[in-house]
Amino acid sequence: MNLTLSLATNGGATAKKRKLLRDSVVVDDDVTTSCDGGDRRHGRVARLLLQAGRERVTAKLEADDDRLRLLHLLLASVSAAEAGDARAAAAALHEVRRRASFRGGDPAQRVAAHFARALAASSLVVRSPPGAEAEASPPTRAERFLAHTMFYQASPIYQFAHFTANQAIVEAFQSGGRRRRRLHVVDLDVSYGFQWPSLIQSLSAAAAASASTSTSSASHDGDEPVSLRITGFGTSHDELRRTEARLARFASGFPSLMFEFDGIVDDGPDSVLRDERIKVVDHDATVVVNLVLPGSRSSMTTGTRQKARSALLARTIHSLNPSLVFLVEKDGGGGGNNNATSRGTGRSSLLLPAFTASLRYFSAVFDSLHECLPADSAERLAIERDHLGVEISDAMACLDFNSNGGDDDHMAEPSWRQMMERSGLFEGVELSTRTVSQAKLLLKMKSAGCGGGGFRVVEGEGGRAMSLAWRDREQLITATGWRRRRPSIDHHEARVHG
């Protein structure tokens, strides 16, 4: 069973791309010399070309210097705040806000503006630094949904995460055998539900094919329709109802699939632990836990309670007896794993590394979006303001919360992957060649209109991890699959013969 890639492609994109490449190579008549042409003219042209090249390089270096200066000022502000120098922190942040622009032509200007606003709204540096303008009103629900939708269509980041996860889910469901007809997905951050239409389509196609096979072979294995139940955690009852309505409306077009959605409001870091509904599992169903880009709000808890909660959450997931736990997590979203604190400030000494990682991640995302959409694009501005800007604010609020533990037990939030590894209950699984090839196919399809193929797939850990990277920078997001750890042979024999 293969996952259906429901992506629109432009059949003439490759030809247009080649023409654009040809048109971009400008040949000056003065460069072309005849057989009897003079070397002096050729030498003069060569010197002019060399001078022009140097001027272009100089201009690029100056632009790069401006970008680096903005990012260094942000780091200096956080570093000074971490050291307890409020005046220096405020001065650096003020300089960022003076230089940066939400509508600037360079992505570094824009990402710096969003980070400066988020820092000013938190207590990570200072509140209301000198010269700070009034904060813009937050985007409406409709604006956030529209920005999320536009980002989903423009950038391959979310599509890479969703199609990769869905392919692994399809394979886990298929491995249950032809008699396993029910799939239960526990999605710990369902968001707008954009991940699930392609899975619904693929499961329906497989169910129709199975029914056709059973009819021709006089078998009744395919008589029972395939059912998909999604238990999704979301931010509000209203948003969950809207997500359910969208998915139910889409699923209604596939009569060979029975669809059910159960929304649960994520009202705090312990929602998953408290809610009994996720523990009601159909033992005849294939159970999958979906952790695709889980939101930062779920990490707002500190101290030794965080360590205990992580262990309990891992045990809760383990108790569902999942065939697969699929995780796609941002690389460099912040966080750490020790409890050191800075002397005299009560802040985590991991604040600056965590902030730096977050800044690098969003800088790469802004750079990639800058190449995916035109410089004067209203869509790009809306995405950066109403989606990425909100994500930056959420990340800084989470970092602010976790950096103010104020006691020796404080520790930064471990990543979901660290939680899985430390629990001792799960082991990583190798991603299939089909999963990897689907990811590469997606990028090939998207590269015609986004960044000229600047995104790339990076495989690692012996095939147990796959990342999406932007150009020569570090990975943006990484996908891993997990299953319940199997008892070792020695342990099994000890139980049998003990």
Automatic annotation (TrEMBL):
Pfam (any one): GRAS
InterPro entries linked to this entry: TF_GRAS
Superkingdom of the source species: Eukaryota
Coiled coil: none
SAW: annotated segments: 397-483
Positions occupied by motif VHIID: 183-187
Entry keywords, A to Z: Transcription, Transcription regulation
Family listed: Belongs to the GRAS family.
Protein name: Protein SCARECROW
Native source species: Zea mays
